[in-house]
Amino acid sequence: MNIVILGAGQVGSSLAEVLANENNDVTVVDIDRLHLQRLQDRLDIRTVFGHASHPNVLRQAGLEDADMLIAATQNDETNIVACHLAQIMFKVPTKIARVRGRSYLDHPELFSSQFDEKAINIDLLISPENLVTEYILQLIEYPGSLQVIDFHHSKLRMVAMRAYQDGLLVNKQINTLKKHLPSAIKTRIVAIYRNKDEIVMPTGETVIRAGDEVFFLAEPRHVPAIIAELRQKKEKPSRNIMIGGGGNIGFHLAKALEGDHLVKLVDHNMQQAREVAEQLDKTVVIRGDISDKDLLLEENIDEIDLFIAVTNSDEANIISGMLAKKLGVRRVIALVNNQSYVELIQLNGIDVAISADSITTSHLLHHTRRGDTVKAVTLRRGAAEAMEVVAHGSENTSDIIGKTIAQIPWPSDITVGAIIRKDNVIIAHRDLEIEAEDHVVLFLTDPNSASAIAELFATSEPSWFRWN
């Protein structure tokens, strides 16, 4: 696929790396020569220096031959204009724009994926801030979760949890799980990570150890019961929550949480703190430095169940998160985009580090895949991936339809987790047969296997239909 990315910032760079590694033809446009040079030094891509919304620059980037434009600069207007020009000048098939401004996001009628002379032709608007907010809210729904991913309109959910020493399943084989759960609850453990990065491909005989990071699939209503088997005790919901940062993410988190939780929000900017306070009903808004120990003590940090650091500074989020943990907060979530800080975080007690870039990249990934991939999510900072792929065709045109899971030559680093058939969830087993239009959920310990999956799910015309 020929893809043009506008913007070599964190989101654009992350996308360029993922897409280039999947053998796409990638061109990146930016006004920062240093950023472009750094990308070109480590990736097999083409770069163009210039303003992303200038017609001559878009032509130089090869937009007339592009299959997709991803406008991911820091400027909303630049992204919108570039997508508009991509349509009227080059008829680019797919146009995606990163938009942060609430005034744009609140008026979707201004944009259309279909030709409409009254609307700007953009196929998909993405807001990293909205995506991060939704991601954090899912983590809050399941106390102790490390990652939560929905498939097929939330019919199926993948959850990553840490197994604790006193959990009922710890030091036991996976096949004993069904003995501890009601018969109506079905689940499948699709991967286990041990000692940070050691991958264990699970079988029924695999023994779960304390500290393992366990990925399992289940229907959302069954997730709490499964979590209870992996944890030493049932974790209390986070009642008292403190949010560091009153920007878009902090504000929308407070707005979503203040109805059912006791929320405090801290921001160092007086004007922003005042504006946020005027728009929130129950949240206590405090003007101050979130990494100020005296402030945290004054606000009874030891009574806080969950601390969420989502300022614009990675350093402030890390320092305040580590400080909150030291002062007695049970759980800490921090927004950290710089991947070089991840090791530091793992060693210093922050429970979950989330990256807006990784979340945004995951949201876009399935648009760049061959075949009918309806979801593709990067896991463990890009080291693994979960996919939802639709099986099309018939036994005559497909290599997988009509065959059981055991008969299909899957790559060795793939786990088939479940099938969603006509909105019904079927947990995978070796004798389960694939039918047309099944949504197959897979776990890939190597994202490079995505191309092999695309080939497996590809369809071809039957031999009697082909010209000789």
Account of the 3D structure:
It is globular and about 65 Å long. It folds into 4 domains: 2-126, NAD(P)-binding Rossmann-like Domain (Rossmann fold), CATH 3.40.50.720; 156-230, 2-Layer Sandwich (Alpha-Beta Plaits), CATH 3.30.70.1450; 240-354, 3-Layer(aba) Sandwich (Rossmann fold), CATH 3.40.50.720; 360-457, 2-Layer Sandwich (Alpha-Beta Plaits). The protein is 29% helix and 26% strand. The strands form 5 sheets. It has a 6-stranded parallel beta sheet with strand order 3-2-1-4-5-8, with helices on both faces. The longest helix has 15 residues, at 76-90. Helix 1 (10-21) crosses helix 14 (356-365) and helix 6 packs across helix 14 (356-365). The two termini are 29 Å apart. By secondary structure, it is an alpha/beta fold. It has helices spanning 10-21, 33-42, 55-60, 76-90, 102-105, 128-141, 177-180, 223-230, 248-257, 270-279, 293-298, 314-326, 342-347, 356-365, 450-457; strands at residues 2-6, 25-30, 46-49, 68-71, 94-98, 111-112, 120-121, 124-126, 145-151, 156-162, 187-194, 198-200, 213-218, 240-244, 262-267, 284-287, 306-309, 331-335, 352-354, 373-379, 384-390, 414-421, 424-427, 439-444. Strand 20 and strand 21 form a beta hairpin. It is built from 15 helices and 24 strands. Residues 146-232, 374-459 form the RCK C-terminal domain. Residues 1-120, 238-354 form the RCK N-terminal domain.
